[in-house]
TrEMBL record:
Protein source organism: Flavobacterium agri
UniProt-listed CDD domains: KH-II_NusA_rpt1 (cd02134), KH-II_NusA_rpt2 (cd22529), S1_NusA (cd04455)
Residue ranges of every copy of the NusA-like second KH domain listed in the record: 284-346
Subunit structure: Monomer. Binds directly to the core enzyme of the DNA-dependent RNA polymerase and to nascent RNA.
UniProt family annotation: Belongs to the NusA family.
Domain Transcription factor NusA N-terminal: 6-125
InterPro entries in alphabetical order: KH_dom-like_a/b, KH_NusA_2nd, KH_sf_prok-type, NA-bd_OB-fold, NusA_N_sf, TF_NusA, TF_NusA_bacterial, TF_NusA_KH_1st
KW RNA-binding (keyword) present: yes
GO molecular function: DNA-binding transcription factor activity; RNA binding
Matching Gene3D superfamilies: 3.30.300.20, Nucleic acid-binding proteins, NusA, N-terminal domain
Name of this chain's protein: Transcription termination/antitermination protein NusA
Source species taxonomy: Bacteria, Pseudomonadati, Bacteroidota, Flavobacteriia, Flavobacteriales
Highest taxon listed in the record's lineage: Bacteria
Chain's role: Participates in both transcription termination and antitermination.
Amino acid sequence: MENLALIDSFSEFKDDKLIDRVTLMAILEDVFRNALKKKFGSDENFDIIINPDKGDMEIWRRRVIVADEDLDLENEEITLTEARKIEPDFEIGEEVSEEVKLIDLGRRAILALRQNLISKIHEHDNTNLYKQFKDLIGEIYTAEVHHVRPRVVILVDDEGNEIVLPKEKQIPSDFFRKGDNVRGIIENVELKGNKPQIIMSRTSEKFLEKLFEQEIPEVFDGLITVKNVVRIPGEKAKVAVDSYDDRIDPVGACVGMKGSRIHGIVRELGNENIDVINYTNNIQLFITRALSPAKVSSIKLNEDQKRAEVYLKLEEVSKAIGRGGHNIKLAGLLTGYELDVIREGNIAEEEDDVELTEFSDEIEGWVIEEFAKIGLDTAKSVLKQDVADLVRRTDLEEETILDVMRILKEEFEG
């Protein structure tokens, strides 16, 4: 039977696409009904019988017998003369069921059937894939590098699904080769036409939070809660943690002996510097902890404007601001307050000091900006620093720093 042969040829899609036979048969019925509508104008008087075990199917058309001269609706009616060719004792008003062979639909219709089936199966696969990865949004996922492009890395998982890791979702120090295993979170699933595009991220705060869940048993078990995570990917992160069990030190449990627990997370994130902080509802104390390693003298809050004036001794200012301004920026994001640094120092000494911007004729603007990023914006604040320490904390060469210090010393010696 040609119906059976056609079903068998269609079944190759089941093997290729890992689609179960029952689903395939349901798709087949839908495809055939569409073909019948095109051929006969309606499929309402057709019965499609599918046997998913045998992979066989039959199509039967039901028509009412009318007198030869009363034929009006060819798809729904059959003349008495035509009916009696099928069964000699048929009478007007009875219903005739007649099998429709696929060959009756025509060669072009059969080719269209096949194309429509392929389309429907792809649509089914894409719908399932979309649902599968929608449920995985926010979860860690591992896939293998298949292709590295300038703006994107294409990954493939164990089931052959393609995952996209855009450049902006990669940590700046990330470097991938074909065959590497990559971990990130599924950040989004977008439909591009009918095909789902799965987006992975390694820069998301959620990725760091999920790494804490994976690597620290107390977080996984719910004994420690990650309250907030803020990051400058590849540079620095701050994680606020809390525990409802007073016997557990949340920071100590997360960091581990000599940093043993957090080391794997730091390595995964390209040596991102991670500060783990004890969460508290006391906002002044929380800001103080968030600005670590700087020691805060006092804080003046404006809760309406979500601003805080943070008073620091001169030698603590650069620690609070951090390299590139990262420490104070992340502390503000973590606490939800805009932080203004107020220096505490010797007033007479400050009056005698000179703003670095006053030296713009002799020192290039970008060099002055590098010092400002770590909280050094006066001549004396720079001169108090150790040269090796400045090389480590800025993007300046030792020669440039020594040259700046010479210019600044001349100002006070002259």
